[in-house]
Prior knowledge:
Bound molecules: 6-O-phosphono-alpha-D-glucopyranose
Strand order of the largest sheet: 4-3-5-6-7
Shape: globular
Amino acid sequence: TRIEKAGYKHFMAKEIAEQPAVLADALRHYVENSGGVNPALRLPEGLDFTQIDRLTMVACGTASYACHVAKYWFESLAGLPCDIDVASEFRYREPPLSARSWALFVSQSGETADTLAALRYAKDKVAKIVAVVNVSTSSIAREADLALPILAGIEVGVASTKAFTCQLAVLALLALKAGQDRGRLTAAQVQAHLADFALLPGLMNHALGLAGEIESLSDQLAEAQDVLFLGRGPMYPLALEGALKLKEISYIHAEGYASGELKHGPIALIDNRVPVIVLAPRDHLFEKTVSNMQEVMARHGKVLLLSDAAGVAEAGAGCWQALTLPQVPDLLAPILYAIPAQLLAYHTAIAKGTDVDQPRNLAKSVTVE
Ligand code: G6P
């Protein structure tokens, strides 16, 4: 099948826009009665999380940031300790692996050389090799004991977008399963989370509606030399992903930081030319992140706040810009906030005139070491 841009200027724009639909596909696949009454997880046999006391996650690039978000979920929802490493480090680190653990590999292509080598290293050392992949016929899918498709559809743009949010969705559902198996979540709590999930495609559509506002501030972002992304909790790995997206396609130097680490280094970079993008839904960590944001403002940093209406009302004053997202259940915030992060990268790259779908020096799938 030939994949077309279907009226979009770039594959990346098309793939960003497809997210509500492909995420709904993934939900229909993994959730019985998704959107209906009494939704229930429908995961394949062989995922009994009482069998393990540790989960090791390995991936590269954007997929590795999906793992970082998932660590917060597995630990908080299921009390399951997680290790994470990028595949290129993991494979040579000689990490001791326990027979009471699973190793989980996340890869859009399923062909990334380092991730595949890491999988082969883990084989026979862990109880099970699980893969979360987009390409079900890929090497990683075939060599895993259990492969879970993310159902994002073919992704052409080099910078991963819809694969990331579908990876997050599948990992969140796994974390719910883990919480249920390990007695940390009641059946009613799992159901409540699944009911929240059913709202996600609609919330994502709403977030896509920010494109116009984002486009109009992208000219100014395009002038920046450096951009910082800040987040706390599961929004921290999202800050890493936002920075990766921006640098990949606009070639602007961008870094993601845990908000609380700001004072341990990056605050030295702040002046009135450095945009600081703060990812902060109005959750229990909001006040902490806002106080970090105020440290930036006190040094004349240009803050772009991404929050919900309550967060923007509370802390938007004095920011350079604020974007209002819909209110979202905590678990789903990283999935929703990925969209404005992608749109910021996309529109900034357009403003700079770079090749969005084929950024220089990058490959969609890195099949060499
Ligand atoms: C390349 C791509 C990224 C991707 C990474 C991992 O760097 O440009 O978008 O996140 O590889 O790829 P994978 O196929 O293993 O997810």
